[in-house]
Amino acid sequence: MTKKDAPPRWDRKMQQRLARGEAAALGELYDRFASLVHGLAHRVLGDERAADGITRDVFAHVWEHPEAYDPQQGPLRSWVATLTHRLAVQRLRTTETAALAQGSGGSTEDLERKVRRASVAARADYIVTSMPAPLRAALDLAYFQRRDYRQTAADLGVTEDEARRRLRLGLQLLATAHDVGAPGAPPGYGGAV
Length: 193
Known about the structure:
mainly alpha
């Protein structure tokens, strides 16, 4: 993405193109956000087919209602993630409520716990994919490759202080996944599920 196309300008242009009914705009939006949408939906629902359905629903909604996005409220990416989260949680509640009605042996409290866990996991995924690459790289080395901050610094070619700073900031961002209305979460993303 070039500097002149960086959000929010790109977001406003995309919304205008969608409002004019440009199918190519929907294709570009899909190419940019489909993996985010599918990943979040899958994280909430734990079902590939259901995630595919949510992905279709999200892009259909964006196509049919481009005016629902307000660039003043935040980036298009966040709005799409919020929409995905809302639709996936609605689907989860619907399917789990139907299972409860059929006597699957759970309670409404179990359902709410499952929804909260899925929401936190989806927010954490969103935070990780949205954080700057240097923070994500440091967390990847420390968590997945079991490097300490000294090894992380050497692998990244930065000072030990910088590696500690990146790890601390990355972990602080991830910790907000549990917070309602967390900074770093899309607007409305941490709110009522």
